[in-house]
Structure formats: C-alpha cells, structure tokens
Amino acid sequence: MKNKNRWIGLGVFLFLACNFFLIYFDSDHNVEQKSYVNEWSGTFSSDIEESLSVRGVFSTEEVTPVYFDEQSGSFQEFFVDVGDQVNNGDELYSYEVLNYQSQEAELERESTKLQEEIDAIDTYLLALENYTIDDSQNNNTFGFNNPFSNDDSQDEVEGFIDNNQDPAEAELIKEEAIADKEKERTQKEAKLAMVEDQLDQLTSTGQTITVTSTFDGVVTDRSEDLNSPLLTLSSSELLVEGKLREKERKMVEEDMKAEITIQDLDDLELQGSMEEIDSFPEDVNVHSSSQYPYEITLTENDEQIRAGYHADVNIITDEVSGALAAFEKVLVTEKNLFAWKMTDQGILEKSLIETGLEEAGIVEISSGLEGQVKLASLPRDQFRDGTPFITPIDLRNLKIDDLFQGSLPMKETILLGLFNR
C-alpha cells in the first residue's frame, strides 16, 4: 500500500514538473493556455425590487370634531363615552332650547345652505361625468358633451385637467375627483339629515333637541367641562404617517407600494400605497434638513393594530418581474462592468454587461448576457479571455482503483487527458 501511494505521489510530481517546463521553455507559445475555475454560479430569473426604509406611525384616517353652541341652549347630557363605536345617526348629546324661534330660524338657514351645497356638488359631478377625454389618432381632445352643464363647473373642471396631459393620467384625475366629490356629497347629506331631524324634534317637543352623529367612528375625546370641541370622533380606518428627509423625498412618488411591518406584533406585515406626500416641508430652517410629511393608506386592516403603534415602512421605489439576474459577487468592475461567461464549448469569455436594479446582492442584467449561462467567480487571476477552462475534480466521487480498471480505451483517454497540451 505504501509503495502504491509512493508511485501515485511520484506520478503527480512528474506531471506538474512536465507542465512547468513545457510552459517555461515555450517561447513560441505553442502550449495552449487554460483558465482554472474553482467557483462559479449562473444567471437566473428573479423579481427584483429597490426600496427605501423609513419609520412610520399608525393614525386615524379622519378626525371629526363635534361642537356645541352655548347660545343655542342649555346642555343636558352625553349619550356616549370615550371608546364607544358610533355610526351615522347615533345619538351623541342633547340640549334644551332657550329660544324656540331663533333656533328654528337657525336650523332652517342651515338646512337651506346644505341643500344648496348639495345641488352645487351635483352640478359639478355632472360636469365631471360629461367631461370627455379622447385619445383618437394620438390627438388629445378634452371637452364637455352636455350642452346643459353649468359654465362655472366647466371652467373649474378645465382648471385642473390640462389639455396637454396624457389621456390616461387625465382620466385617472377625473375618476379621483368624482370619488372625492361623491364622498363630500355623502357627508353633506348626513349633515342635512341631522339638521332636518333636529327641526322635527323642535317642532314636536318645542324644547329638547338630541344631536346625532354624521360620522362612523370611535369617540376618542369627550370634554367634561363642555369646552370646544365637545366630542372628537376618529375614523376606525387607520393609515400610516411619517416624514421623509430631503434625499428620500426625491426618491418617492405617490401611488408607490409600501410594506408595513409591526415588530411588536410578531413582525406582522401589511400592504399599503403611498397616498399623499406634502410638496412643502413641515418646517423650513437653513440649519436643519427639511422633512416632508407623508400618508400611506392600507389595503388591509388588522384588529390588533391601534392608532399610535409604530412600524417599519419599506417603500418600493422601483421593481421588475422575471428579470435575468446574477449574484453581484460574480460581476467584475474595472473600467467597465463585465462577467466571465463559461460557454457550452468549454471556453471562458469576457462579456461586457449593463445592469439595472439591485437587491440584496442580486443584480439585474439588462444587456450583455442572454438566457441561462454559467459565470466564473474565482480565482480571477487565473481567468484568460477566449481560453478553455478547467474545473477541479470532485474527489468525493472519484475512486483511484476504478481509474486503472476496465478496457484499454479508458486508460488511453485518462493518459491523453493528463498529458494533453
């Protein structure tokens, strides 16, 4: 056994010595150069996202104060406590009217005013709905198709829809404006119903009026000393608020997707969308960085979350699906970015590439490589462009005894492989 190992060691030494002398005395470069590749990986398909990490805090989506005018009468009692859930039409408090005729006149004026505001909203909605956006033959045409629309409403609509805007963008602005106006109309209708209810109460009792809610939410504050506001109602829907620094503000746009993680709730994750980013900073100071408030609306809710909870926010600033990608460590930067491509013909090629997005050590390959290819990684000082490459033998699956057993062609192939220049 010792003699056998001794002969194997001698054979390896002679092999290395022969190769050394062949290369050393090869002044005419007759010996073919090879590249030795010890580590390699390959390109693959991947979804890549670039993101910005900031901090945020949960807040109520909407806060509505409820007031009581002491000149209207004498306060009697509350019907709700802090923490109570209230819906539109639920009783909040009552008061005793001091001057019947004055209160009746005030409620009638308020009713008339609300009805006029609702009519104005209806006119504006009609103008919006009849505002046409035509992109036929790549010519943007904007206008009204209803000859009975109010001229003032037409001017107002044309004021925020630019004739030079992209039609798809203009259509989106139109849809958002319709949704906002419909929401405003619903609120006005709720207030009108409350006022008319108070008028009915005044007519039937002549003395006591119960104020009802025009809002769905939770009672978050109640003024025991009857200071204004008497009650504060907060929406049950939550949003995430925070601030962006100057550099971050340049990277973020409205409607970008966001991932919200609450560490204190076992890393609970929610999805959201950047709803609003202020165009102006909260404070302007020459000695400090400006900060821009933002709001993220949630696409889902969780009953565990409460207003005031803090969260980690990951804003998706750019993304690509199914991109050709590679690990960053196999890419080489000198004057230009390139990768060592291992071809199916056994040749190592230096391929200039261009990259796109990057995430956690994975880089998008935008040009220079196509399809699934192998890329050499280490040792780079052994790589030569256009040369055959060799890789190490996997000794775990190699049995020395099997190499010298079997047919003569097998032995000849092994010897040719060892001594082939």
Automatic annotation (TrEMBL):
Residues 239-315 form the YknX-like beta-barrel domain. It is found in: Cell envelope. It comes from Halobacillus seohaensis. This is HlyD family efflux transporter periplasmic adaptor subunit. Its main location: other. Residues 178-205 form a coiled coil. Gene3D superfamilies: 2.40.30.170. The chain crosses the membrane at residues 7-25. Keywords: Coiled coil, Membrane, Transmembrane, Transmembrane helix. The lineage of its organism: Bacteria, Bacillati, Bacillota, Bacilli, Bacillales. Residues 66-226 form the YknX-like barrel-sandwich hybrid domain.
